[in-house]
Write a structure and sequence with these properties.
By secondary structure, this protein is an alpha+beta fold. It has helices at 4-22, 34-48, 54-60, 107-111, 123-134, 168-187, and strands spanning 61-69, 72-81, 84-97, 100-105, 137-146, 153-161, 199-202, 211-217, 222-228, 241-242.
Amino acid sequence: MKRLLPLVLAAAAFMAAAASGAARPARRQTELTAAEKSLVEGSRAAVIATGITAEYFDRHFRVERVVDRAGDRRVVWRFSVGGYEATVSDSIGFYTEGGRRFDTHSVAGTLNTTSDLTRAIPRARAERIMRRCIGAYTSPRVEYRAHGPGGAAALLLTAEALVVPRGGAAREARGRRERQEREGRGRRAPEGPGRQADSIEEGDEGGGAAVLLGAVDLSTGRCTVGRGQAGPPAAPRPRDRRVP
C-alpha cells in the first residue's frame, strides 16, 4: 500500500493540473503565421466597418478558425452576447487595381449593417415564440446575419417545422397563429419601457416549398415565417487551423 501511495498522489496531481489548464481558455493567436494574422486584422476591420464599435467587437468576438490556402481564405469568428453564441464566417477574396491588390470580405454582405447589440430575450421565451410560429420544430440554431426589410444584422434563432402544412391546412395554421397572437396581446400587460411585444410575420411562401422556416429575432421577439426547399447535405470542409 505504501508503494502505491506516491503513484496515487502523482496521478491526482496530474489530473488536477490538466483540469486547471482546461479551465483557462487560451487564445493562441501568437501561433498564427504572419499571413494569417493579416487575414484576422483585415477581417476585424471589415466587421467593424459594418457599424459596430471596436470596443464592442473586442468584447464579443473571438477568432474561431483561420484558413489561408489558395482559393480558400477565411476567418471564422465566434460572436457571444446575452448567453447566445453564433459563428460569423468571412470569406476573403481580392481584386487588383493600378497594380495594387485589395482584399474583399464576404462579411460586408453577410452582415450588411450592424450596431452594438446589448439586449437578448431568454432562450425559453424564444422557443415559445418559435412554437407559435411553426409548431413543433427541429434543427434550431443561432445565427447572426442580415435579416428583415432593412437588411440590418440581427441575432436570430432559426428552425425548421417538423410538419409542413399545405393548401387549406396551411391557411388554417396561419389563421390559428394569428388568433393566438391576438389573444396573447389581449392577455399581456402593457409593455414597459424598453420592452417590445412579440409578433409574427409571414415571409415568402413561394411555390414548390418543401420546408417551413422560422426565424425569431432575439432582440425584439419578432418571428418571421417563410418557406424554402430542402437542399442536399453540405460537403465536409477540409481541415483548417482552429484557434483555441
